[in-house]
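ok new one. same drill as before - structure tokens go in, u give me an amino acid for every spot. 241 of them this time. try not to just spam alanines like last time pls lmao
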């Protein structure tokens, strides 16, 4: 399993053996807080199954920052810096995680340049995505923001026609920066573009129609065919050097 994970597969065989000895796979029930804000993480996590909410509390107000999905690692920044986390991580559904000692990750960063490059690559992509999201939040209205997020979710899932998203709507509204009642309004506005919803399910029947909606607003960068390519794939880092 470890050899198949993008961030870890660049490690030499001896390091992977040590990693397997020191790591553990655990189940976390829905609602479990995996990491508290301002904690110094003792472990680095890879989410194998489920969805995790990353949230931050400022002046006693908690806000959803992002959703972490299967295949992602967290919290890389705090582990690399050996510092406290600036957000909390809680299971939105029953989750399965790979738990790796944070100190071991830092040892690999210091001893394995290829792994350090892969971690830098991961951090750079995260920063670019975050800046892109913040830029979009300033130039788009609520309906545009929701449409762009739905298309981003489809890209993450490699969907080509339609998708079905099962996440708490209140969390989605919080993530996108508007009140839950406004989310219902924006979903109605997108109905003619192939978007429908029930209790905690949002369904997109046609990504092309949703992309056309954004394109008609001059937001072509949000369309699937205009998504920027990711940086150098992990497997090609050595060749790029």
């Amino acid at each position: 399993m470890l050899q198949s994970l993008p961030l870890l597969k660049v490690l030499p065989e001896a390091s992977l053996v040590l990693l397997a000895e020191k790591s553990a796979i655990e189940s976390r029930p829905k609602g479990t807080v995996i990491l508290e804000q301002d904690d110094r993480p003792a472990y680095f996590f890879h989410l194998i199954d489920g969805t995790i909410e990353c949230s931050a509390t400022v002046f006693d107000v908690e806000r959803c920052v992002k959703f972490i999905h299967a295949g992602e690692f967290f919290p890389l920044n705090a582990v690399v810096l050996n510092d406290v986390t600036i957000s909390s991580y809680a299971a939105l559904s029953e989750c399965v995680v790979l738990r790796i000692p944070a100190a071991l990750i830092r040892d690999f960063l210091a001893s394995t340049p290829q792994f350090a490059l892969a971690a830098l690559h991961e951090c750079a992509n995260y920063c670019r995505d975050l800046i892109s999201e913040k830029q979009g939040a300033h130039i788009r209205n609520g309906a545009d923001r929701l449409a762009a997020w739905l298309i981003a979710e489809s890209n993450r899932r490699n969907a080509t026609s339609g998708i079905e998203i099962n996440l708490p709507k209140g969390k989605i509204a919080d993530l996108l920066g508007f009140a839950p009642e406004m989310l219902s309004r924006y979903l109605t506005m997108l109905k003619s573009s192939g978007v429908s919803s029930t209790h905690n399910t949002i369904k997109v029947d046609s990504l092309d129609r949703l992309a056309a909606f954004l394109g008609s607003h001059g937001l072509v960068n949000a369309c699937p065919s205009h998504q920027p390519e990711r940086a150098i794939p992990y497997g090609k880092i050595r060749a790029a050097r």
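The chain is about 40% helix and 25% strand. and btw The chain has a mean pLDDT of 85.
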